[in-house]
Amino acid sequence: MHTGNAGPVAPAQISGAPRPMEALAREGATQPARRPESTNTSERVVDTREVRILVVDDDPDQLAVCRMALQRGFPHGEVVVMRSGQECIHHLSSVGAEAVILDYKMPGMNGIEVLRHIRDSWPDALVILVTGYGDEAVAVEAMKLGAADYVMKSMDYATVLPAVLSRCLDIRDRERELEAERTRNIQLATVIQTTRALAHEINNPLQVISGTCELLSLMLTPTDPALGKQAGDLVTVCDRIADVIRRLYKVTNPVSQMRMGIAMLDIEASSPAPDAPGSALISSWDAPK
Q: Cys bridge to 142: 13, 65, 129, 209, which one at CB 3.0-4.6 A?
């Protein structure tokens, strides 16, 4: 919870005393993960992200104050004010927004009703609910419904909105990064499993081919040295392919993968030198027929 009071420290703010958010947690509210917060929640925050922010309140004076504070905190952002929940939903339908600062007590649709609609239709939008003192039950319900955070409505609550929203955006960005990393790990695991399966399928017949060629080389060399040499060159080629397969196994080993970082298997390094045994045979495979 965040308040904008700059007066004497309330008992709940004294070190060691239960904080309102902790009390809400005991009542069953789901709190978003947070980075360590500054002890001064009214500190000046300047966030350079380009975000569209909707502020919804039926009080024009409160809208003006919140808009000014958010424009200072997000100089590259766009702050749009709305007078009702219906206007907010219409704007989200036509234009969209990344964040919504939503007052609870409004005529027509209250903040909880608007929050439900937003979570159903625009689940990626961050919603911060503004409630009055004594509305802890409303804050609990809002957090359960998926609000990113809530702020108690004090005389100067608007001054903390930039800091609260900036922290919520940080949390969202970190969650997206973690999800992207999880996706990359799944893709990497799939590549590793496929590579090992292919290497296994190639290695088995390769051993048969290599053994057969070696036997042919021994049998043909006394009577036809040229043909025996070609069979021997095939054995050399099979050995080089087997070496690539062994390196594939090493690359796809999870322990080796962590150590090698961004290193990749150098297939070119596995190609024989021009004068190496088997190089002429490989060249003949690539030659036009």
A: 129
